[in-house]
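Morning, I've got a small favour to ask if you have a moment. It would help a lot if you went through both lines with me. I owe you a coffee for this, so here goes:
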Amino acid sequence: MNTESINLIKKYYAAFNNADMETFLNLLTDDVVHDINQGRRETGKLAFTDFMANMNCHYKEQLIDMVIMATADGSRAAAEFVVLGNYLHTDEGLPEANGQTYTLPAGAFFDIREQKIARVTNYYNLQNWINQVNP
């Protein structure tokens, strides 16, 4: 277990939960790779910043029940958690938003380089989310 990498991921999610986008984004490498759940791959901090601006416009989320693991050398990490969310504004191609709440198990995988996050791969069950916001 690598406590430096675990602490990095803890800081990343604490910044997320506190809506501290400056700290959150500063934990990423400039060339960060972002694998969007059931979607495309984006590269670079600017693309990640744009993605988060869109997410923060449409959703308000808190992550709880966090479990974080890291390889012995600290180069990779994983997190499992539960997303408590509110769907604030309709996101393109998704059901209409009207403040619905949702509880969604999720996870993420990370590459870590020089104590920054170099890759984030997120996963959650999109159909589960759709069923919750569009019963």
